[in-house]
Structures are given as structure tokens and as C-alpha cells.
Design goal:
alpha+beta
């Protein structure tokens, strides 16, 4: 049936008087899941995702070097689309640090990409291990800070009322589980009190096996697993690091907004802030992006994320979001803590961290962002963590002329 010009005019007038805060209830169209090599997404390929965690955690060094920069070639996911405008990163004065010191650190830590930004300008940028500026590298848990940011965006957009809301308001399938009485804030700060094992070296840990079994029909696989976990302490009483809870946050954002995480990240950050390249976000067996892991992002766009946070996320989140998200909600050690999926450090510094040496380090007082993409020989290593922190301090000192 054709619609005449009068019908078009009436429709336009009707739209003109819709209240500004009214929500469009039209179901959004999610971006398609991209299969490796553009192959069809068969049930067998989605089934492979159930064992992806164990596969990735136990790759050898050659596999890490090859696959960390090409995850989209092995696993399905969604594309986070960039826009037409690029946030410029002009070259600043070269950081006064010996090239040999940088090379030695990168070799010792299996660093594939290192960038230092100060006052919005690149002061150091170097690549190794077959990586380059036009490539992407997997984030591991650095993705947690991106997912947290989408909670802030959903609050600003009115999809989530408050971090003080019960998690079950948005994920009712968790009712009657250990998550009864847990707030969104406690989920964000990993203080839910629900029992969890994050041992990357234990094939029977929760982080390894959470997608090993098919979920019941109609239940999100993350929710299906997490609702089986017992309560270990009262909500808000104890901090325990749980990737599964960030995966829950991702599901919560998708349920609240009706949008795929990749689409919402593109809408709220990638396009408006001017990321230079598309990103890639792996999905779980239900085709839900994995909120706690597995974004593939260019090194410069990791740095741009740091600058986005330094600028307060204007337009995407409320002004009070990042001050709250990057302040300690749980104390881990003297001067160190955990906020809303951000690690907090002494002197007001904070950052995002992922296994195998991924990090975004942010010093707000001196407008410094340091991003690293790496392929450590082990998922976690205390000695390498200490050495990385020491080198970050050395880079900061050089930037400040000390």
C-alpha cells in the first residue's frame, strides 16, 4: 500500500511531539556474527566455543604469537564498527629513554606493542612479534573495563536505573540463586559473595569450564552456569576476581538495552570518539559477546580508550561515572584496589589489565596513557607483573623529565 504525502506529514508531526526521554520500543537489529573466513556459522562451529577457554589458555608460545593478533581467524564474533572521523594522535617529542632499554623490556616480556601517550600526543610507539599498527591484538580482561563503560552508558541512556538495583531486576533467571540480593554495583566490583575459581592453570576451574556444558533451552549460557554457584560470603563483604561476573554484566547490558555489545560500543564510543579501526568481539555459544574477555583492538585504539576515559567519556556516560568507576570499591593491598572493572593504583592512577600481559595504564594527573599488548609465556606471572609496573614507572619518569 502506498502512503500519500499527507500520511507522511502526519507521521512526521507525530514523531515531533514524542517526549525526548521516550524510548523506542522497536526491536533493534543486531549486527551479524562473523565466522572465521566468512564461513557459515554451523552448530558444530558454535559448539567449538564451549572449549575455547581451555584451548586459548593452554596454547604454546608459537600459537600465542600467531593467534593473539588473529582471533577473528579462529573464532566467531561481532565487529565493532568505527566511524568516518578519526581522533588524531599527533607525534610529540620522542620520549627520552634509551632504545636498548625499550627493546630489552619488550623482549623479556614478550611485548608485541607498546605506546606512550602524553597530553594526547604519541611519545613512544613500538611493535614486535609480527604485530603492526594496522593490526589488532586480543584484550583478554582489558575488555572488562570496556564492558563496565557500557553500564555507564546504559545508565545515562535510561536503560539501567542505578547501580544500586538488584541484578535480578535485569536478569530474572538469577532469582533463587546466590545472586539474590546482589546489586549491579557489587557485580561490577566483584563483591557479590558468590563462590568462584579463577585458576587459569586448573582445567576444572570455573573460568575454564563455564561454557563446557550446553545451557537449558531459553537460558543464556552465562546465566545458566552462574546461577548454579553457591554463596560463599555476604554481598559486599569480600572481593574475589570473577570473569564470569563480567560476562554476566555483558548479558545484563544486552538484556537492558536490547543491543549487541559490539553495536552499543560502536554507538557510544567507537564512532563518536573516533577510533581508527574496527574492533572484533568474540561471542559465546549463544552468540552473546563475552563481556569479560576477547576484544581484538589496535594498539592505538587501546590508547584512545585511555584518552576517552581521561576526558570523562563526554556524551557517552554521566560526568560522575568514571570518578566512581575508577575509585576503589574493594581494597586489595596498600594503595591498590578494584573499582567498577578497573584496577586502582597509588596516587590516583588506575588501569585495565588482562592475562598474558595486556594493559592500559592511566595517570590522570599527568595526562599519561601507556598501553601494552603482549604474549607472556604464562597467563599470570607475579615477577613479570612487578617488572612491568617498574618499567611503566620508568616510562612515566622519562615523560616527566625525571
Amino acid at each position: 500500500m502506498q502512503v500519500g504525502w499527507k500520511g507522511v506529514l502526519v507521521g512526521a508531526l507525530a514523531l515531533a511531539v514524542v517526549p525526548a526521554n521516550a524510548r523506542d520500543t522497536t526491536p533493534p537489529v543486531k549486527s551479524p556474527v562473523v565466522a572465521p573466513g566468512n564461513e557459515p556459522l554451523t552448530p558444530e562451529k558454535m559448539e567449538k566455543l564451549r572449549s575455547a577457554g581451555a584451548e586459548i589458555l593452554f596454547w604454546n608460545q608459537e600459537q600465542r604469537d600467531a593467534n593473539f593478533r588473529a582471533m577473528e581467524a579462529r573464532f566467531p564474533g561481532r565487529v565493532v564498527k568505527h566511524g568516518t572521523r578519526v581522533h588524531a594522535l599527533p607525534r610529540g617529542r620522542q620520549l627520552p629513554i634509551a632504545a636498548a632499554d625499550v627493546d630489552n623490556f619488550m623482549a623479556a616480556q614478550n611485548v608485541a606493542g607498546l605506546i606512550v601517550i602524553q597530553d594526547g600526543k604519541i611519545r613512544l610507539e613500538k611493535y614486535a612479534r609480527g604485530y603492526a599498527a594496522n593490526g589488532r591484538w586480543t584484550s583478554f580482561s582489558v575488555a572488562k573495563s570496556f564492558t563496565s563503560t557500557l553500564v555507564g552508558a546504559a545508565i545515562k541512556d535510561g536503560y539501567i536505573k542505578s547501580v544500586n538495583d538488584p541484578v535480578t531486576t535485569y536478569l530474572p533467571d538469577l532469582a533463587g540463586s546466590g545472586y539474590d540480593g546482589v546489586t549491579v554495583a557489587q557485580l561490577l566490583s566483584m563483591t557479590s559473595g558468590v563462590k568462584w575459581n579463577e585458576d587459569y592453570f586448573d582445567p576444572n576451574s570455573d573460568v575454564v569450564k563455564m561454557y563446557a556444558k550446553p545451557a537449558p533451552a531459553g537460558i543464556d549460557p552465562t546465566v545458566a552456569y552462574m546461577r548454579t554457584l553457591p554463596r560463599a560470603s555476604r554481598p559486599g563483604e569480600k572481593w574475589v576476581y570473577k570473569t564470569g561476573e563480567t560476562n554476566l554484566i555483558g548479558v545484563l547490558v544486552t538484556k537492558a538495552t536490547g543491543k549487541a555489545l559490539a553495536d552499543y560500543l560502536s554507538e557510544k564510543v567507537w564512532k563518536p570518539y573516533g577510533m581508527a579501526q574496527d574492533a572484533f568481539w568474540m561471542v559465546d555459544p549463544s552468540q552473546q559477546e563475552i563481556g569479560g574477555c576477547c576484544l581484538s583492538v589496535s594498539l592505538r585504539d587501546y590508547a584512545r580508550m585511555g584518552l576517552f576515559v581521561l576526558g570523562g567519556g563526554k556524551g557517552a556516560v554521566n560526568p560522575d561515572w568514571f570518578p566512581a568507576a575508577t575509585s576503589a570499591k574493594a581494597v586489595i593491598g596498600p594503595g591498590y584496589g578494584y573499582g567498577y572493572q578497573w584496577w586502582t593504583y597509588p596516587e590516583g592512577k588506575f588501569g585495565a589489565q588482562g592475562i598474558f600481559g595486556q594493559s592500559i595504564f592511566i595517570d590522570p594527573a599527568h595526562r599519561i596513557v601507556i598501553a601494552m599488548s603482549s604474549a607472556w609465556p604464562r597467563a599470570t606471572d607475579q615477577k613479570m607483573s612487578i617488572e612491568r609496573a617498574a618499567f611503566q614507572a620508568k616510562l612515566e619518569a622519562a615523560a616527566l623529565g625525571k
